[in-house]
Design a protein that fits this description.
Elements (H helix, E strand, L loop, with lengths): L6 E2 L3 H10 L9 E10 L5 E9 L5 E7 L10
Length: 76
Amino acid sequence: MDCSKAVPVSGVAEEYAYVTAQRCPACGGRWAVCRRVLLEDAQGRHYDQIDVACRRCAATQAFLFDIQSFFPSAQG
């Protein structure tokens, strides 16, 4: 997991708004959310990963979000 590319957000609604604004690089189609996963790195920081599939061509992608602003680490 490359956390350096995580998009910082202030809430789950912002994650979904970000995904909705993105388009499939293969065909320009819209994404359908397949699943949302809570991840934790070795330092105890938490991230949300949203896996999506294109509604038009079925290409897949994962978006990684930095959720520290509303899901603080145990190390705080």
